[in-house]
Amino acid sequence: MRTFETTLPGVVVFEPRRLSDSRGFFVETFQADRYASWGAGGPFVQDNLSRSSQGVLRGLHLQNPNPQGRLVSVLRGTVMDVAVDVRLGSPTFGKSFTAELSEENGLQMYIPRGFAHGFVVLSESADFFYKCDSVYSPEDEITVSWSDPALGIDWQVLDPKVSPKDAAALPLSQIDRLPRYEG
User: pTM for the whole thing?
Assistant: First the structure.
């Protein structure tokens, strides 16, 4: 497995080794000790799968004070995945990292606690899979505006389809219960 550090400390891209032949392929998608050496070992307590059509944008989401780290991948299709550091006091506060995840490239991305996360579907549809290190807590959920100009994210889609919750999200500067950086 190859790993790639990103411009955001703690956000890591993984490229699991894929063994292919005429019958198909095999890939080990998670092995706790190997991922733990990069800070993404879990334990993971919840798995989620979403299917979205082209142009659907989900995010930017996080939880606080009960944060959630996520190991994400795409089982079918292609997305542009985004992590944003929203930890108050962090040297990379408000900075984002993007990666294209697809069934073809098999990449995974780890988004640690304290980072907002979102993705937009670039293919006709996409099945997006994520492992979470804590359970979903609706009362702790925070949604940051995907279109916040201060974040400067190029979503590669001109008119994304978003949920009412995501459409009503506040810009990062107006959110008062962000996590704190503990560097």
Answer: 0.96
